[in-house]
Amino acid sequence: MSELIYKTVKSEVSMVDAAEGIVEAYVNSMGVVDHDGEIIELGAFDQSIQKGGQSVAWFHDQSAPVGKVIDAAPIQLSNDSDNARQQGRLKAVMQFNLNTQRGREAFADVEFGSVKEWSVGFRALEDDLERLDGGENVRVIKNLDWVEVSPVLRGASPDTQTITAKSASDTTPEKSDVASDTEIETIRLGIEIERTKLDITEGIK
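and the corresponding structure tokens:
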């Protein structure tokens, strides 16, 4: 079995609301050369997203999970003008386990903004070596097995961002720390709306 590869992107908290340990963030950039000299294609995460089951680890420590991924989708941004490669970011909705001390502490650091980058851990399943127009040789990852995502201090992938961080207030009535079907469906609908907007934009071009 191949060892895990880690790709990290910088993030900033843009909004904090009261809810139940839900974090929405851009956790990876695709279609651009990262700090390791590699490119992850836009569709590389598709099979893993359909399969599901990714965990949220703390600094990639898989022996101490702090949450789980409840939804994810690649969001297309643009095409590379030089080679028409699709560029985008991986948008993930995660729920931290507030029933555990490590989950509460990890969420608190993300909410506070002391941890500002995200990193995905995966195994490459299909990749090629390509030469860019500038003469640079890069590894292009076309398909991968996405295992986990972690908040970290610094990493390889550019342009990630924490979109929302939601935690249960001490003054609110006690609720289950598992997101309801309605909450998850609302989040998924938001992602689908973004996809639809992108499809409409592509049709106009």
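(Above: one complete record from the training split.) Residues 13-18, 168-178, 200-205 have pLDDT under 50 and may be disordered.
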